[in-house]
Amino acid sequence: MTQEEFDNRYAAALDDIIAAMAEHSEIDPEKFYGMTCILENLRFFSPVLYGALQKREE
Questions:
Q1: Taking the chain, what is the end-to-end CA distance rounded to the nearest angstrom?
Q2: Res. 57: pLDDT tops 80
Q3: How far apart are CA 39 and CA 6, in angstroms?
Q4: SS3 for 50?
Q5: pLDDT digit string (tens) for 14-56?
Q6: Contact 38, 44 (CB under 8 A)
Q7: CA 57: distance to chain centroid?
Q8: Sign of the dihedral defined by the CA atoms of residues 4, 14, 47, 1, in that order
């Protein structure tokens, strides 16, 4: 898997998590927005995670 493929799949997974949280009415809106910010910031760590997984596979 290339880094671009990993980035796309990682972003899609984070989007799926956000969408799943948005569908549940019992989630507090303040906590939802806070968690959304955290998940959006996790996208910046995609290259780090990809590098760690590549080293692990070797």
A1: 14
A2: no
A3: 16
A4: helix
A5: 999 999 999 988 888 888 999 999 999 988 888 898 999 888 7
A6: no
A7: 21
A8: negative
**Are the CB atoms for 46 and 11 separated by under 8 Å?**
yes
Q: What is the largest CA-CA distance in the chain?
A: 44
**Is the separation of the CB atoms in 42 and 15 below 8 Å?**
no
CB-side neighbour CA atoms (13 Å) of 49: 12
Instruction: Tell me which residue of 8, 17, 15 sits closest to 46, measured CA to CA.
Output: 8
Report the amino acid identity of residue 44. F
Assigned token pair, 23: 């569908």
Q: What type of residue is 25? A: S
Contact 49, 10 (CB under 8 A): yes
